[in-house]
Amino acid sequence: MTQALARILVADDEPDLRALLQRYLSDQGYTVRTVDGAGPLDVLLQRERFDVLVLDVMMPGEDGLSICRRLRAQGETIPILMLTARGDPVDRIIGLEMGADDYLPKPFNPRELLARVQAMVRRQRVLGAHTGPRQAGGCIVFGAFTLWLDERRLERNDGQGAQDLPLTTGEFALLQALARQPHRPLGRDRLIALAYGPGHAATDRSIDVQVMRLRKLIETDPAQPRHIRTVWGVGYVFVPDGAAPGGARQP
């Protein structure tokens, strides 16, 4: 069942599609606001809280990819579902590299969009409540970093004061999945299941993109990572203390 009072912001320059999504998602119990471009989008994000942003790639003026990249650079962590009329897998990868959490090509079945929105809202609200061993104090400490599970945030303390680092919902989910399984090599399929749930539409390539983004945040040298390492023929392994694990390679 759809979570009550979940709020969705739709940014698309097609009036018919905006009206359809507002009507359809509202009928499913969501509060929905729609805008036709970057200007009104920025205004609403400053004034109101939303659980998911549905963002069209092809819009006049500032396009969706540029908006997504700018929002992430500003520290905005709202889950973003990108819409595009282009079906090229390269476009999907570019969107994920810009910081999008999911990607849906047009034309699409509204029920598929609904399923993805529901999954994003659910992950946004329950991250940190997964089963399994919890760390003392509801956090995982590694190197100069503290991953606060209940607050869904990453903090760096380099001795000169604590600083929060921006994480998207997808990045937090993946980092948490890795950090809960230290020194245990995990394949990409297993990481998708742990981070996003079984049957999620994430791909091996999207996991690689998210890992690349996490490495840029937490590694002193992303090309020679200490914490998130690649394991030949398997996937990735999380090393909280930076010690070289068996079977892992750099990067």
Structural class, from secondary structure content?
A: alpha/beta
* Helix and strand run: EHEHEHEHEHEEEEHEHHEEE
Largest sheet report: 5 strands, parallel
Percent strand equals 15-25%
- Terminal CA distance reads 42 Å
The counted number of beta strands is 13
Number of helices: 8
Helix content: 25-40%
What are the segments in which pLDDT stays under 50 over at least 5 consecutive residues?
127-136, 243-251
Mean pLDDT: 81
Q: Which strands sit side by side, in order, in the main sheet?
A: 2-1-3-4-5
From the alpha-carbon coordinates, what is the Rg to the nearest angstrom? Answer: 18 Å
Global geometry: globular
Overview of the molecule:
The protein is of the alpha/beta class and 251 residues long. It is 38% helix and 21% strand. The protein has eight helices and 13 strands. The strands form three sheets. The protein has a five-stranded parallel beta sheet with strand order 2-1-3-4-5, with helices on both faces. Strand 1, helix 1 and strand 2 form a beta-alpha-beta unit. Helix 6 packs across helix 8.
